[in-house]
């Protein structure tokens, strides 16, 4: 009895801490979910911010659309399942990786580096290079050899290595640093250079060394073994983060867990997602946001966005009913401004398109005049207002403006017609009509959903949003 009483108290406490703010299609929505959505969509930097009362309607519409998508079984589509799993798993995978796993990987990287470096350790050299191309004639190599002999003699006579490197070395990157190269290990230098360098002790200078790049003189600056793990610890951790190696660690760990538990990786990811959702409200709602957002996209695309864009008859009808909305304050010119190489083509271009629909002009002109390597015409096609095109302004709108001649196309012309009252049909303003038609379909759909599904808002709880 005591245990049951404690459970009841806990249940009441949970409801008090996070009460139901609305019920949509029989499903309770907690205040925390509404706050998560509202705060995320009205954060700093959001242009069209909403107050809580305005956002309630948007949130309800969102939930109703998700209900419709679930009823239509969009969540059973394999394409949806795959895409949702991909998004969700991106959030879940890192949770398999512990600090101990990262430390283990850091130690592994360090040990592998020590092994690669080997017993000869790291070296830092300075060098002077006089270049000779590997395929260059012998005379070029001979000339470079004479110059390097002179440099070597100067160094043996006491010239400062760094100063001489700055003046004569033809390796620009190191020359600016007095010939200094970074620390390297075996395998990072060409063999001829590496063999000569590793033979030197700090302070020793090589003789003249020939490599595929030319002639070098090498000065050993420092030799060392790799510092202890602790010295490089933070740098290795930074390297792991920069290379996104946590993903690799997670993949490896999930694979090992799958073998040891006889579970599939998908099952492990499902379990981890449920665990994280139970522990972290932000993660729970982020995963739900992915899930519902993908459903919303699919159903909205099918019923509104893509449907409107492809419904030519619907667009035409919508335009006809709302034609006054698209009227222009000033005339437009529906046609083209074009430039041709020969005068005869001025008429030929007009004859080519005069019996064709406007949207067929471009293809007809391309195949007739610009089908081969010789481009006979330059064309700008569209619906022009004053100021859009200098040739149209001059030839059609009779404005005093300068028309810049197109090189190699001396003959200018226009073809089309002036639309004084507004567009002829929806294709003249297709982008605007599509957007408005989509908006109309959206409103009609939402109205239907609000009749189809029941919803209730707890006004008293709504007043406590972000105030508890």
TrEMBL record:
InterPro entries: PPIase_dom_sf, PPIase_PpiC, PrsA_foldase. Pfam families: Rotamase. SUPFAM superfamilies: FKBP-like. The keyword Isomerase applies. It comes from the Bacteria. Residues 120-222 form the PpiC domain. GO terms for molecular function: peptidyl-prolyl cis-trans isomerase activity. Keywords: Isomerase, Rotamase. PANTHER family: PEPTIDYL-PROLYL CIS-TRANS ISOMERASE HP_0175-RELATED, PEPTIDYLPROLYL ISOMERASE. This is Peptidyl-prolyl cis-trans isomerase D. The lineage of its organism: Bacteria, Pseudomonadati, Bacteroidota, Bacteroidia, Bacteroidales.
